[in-house]
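so my prof wants the structure for this chain in the tokens format not the other one, which i didnt know existed until like an hour ago. anyway here's the sequence
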Amino acid sequence: MITIGIAGGTGSGKTTVVREIINSLKPGEVVLLPQDSYYKDSSHVPAELRQQINFDHPNAFDWPLLLEHILMLREGKSIEQPVYYYQTCSRLPETIHIEPRPVVIIEGILALSDKRLRDMMDLKLFVDADADDRLIRVIQRDMAERGRTAEAVMERYVRVLKPMHEQFIEPTKRYADLIIPEGGNNKIAIHILKMYIEKHLHHSVIL
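here's what i got, hopefully its the right format
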């Protein structure tokens, strides 16, 4: 099994990189653990206060559960991945059943921030993008998927996303084995990743 961590700022193109990797490999070879699924459950917090939670801070994540699930997959055990619902800022009652696969991808803004998590990774990636490009993608995504207005997204960007990126996300770039500029549009980087993964999997089969 090969474990890959993919980090980068909000709107940097991480999801596109993951999709390109999955599409380049054989069906059923990859398990994806989106870090967003492991936000702490906030259902106990009054609804009017949930919107004030800083979801770009390391404290927003349930690290013990994420670490436990990765260990279980590495041991060949299945997991029940939580489902996080952005509209209510809480976990849904249902979970997603995940079986272990040859490739495990952990994707999220702070995927490289926890040393315990990094130590489990065979390959660490940081998807880099210009701040203006990221802001445009965040506005488009949050308006389409999370019901926010452009004004609300920009206010949150200035108040939360930008300072959190500079304080917590950007510094994790130094832990990356490979930095991918232009996200999923970087076809050469995707090709290199595909070759690395296939070589690692082939080596594991021989061993």
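also thought this was worth mentioning. The chain has a mean pLDDT of 86.
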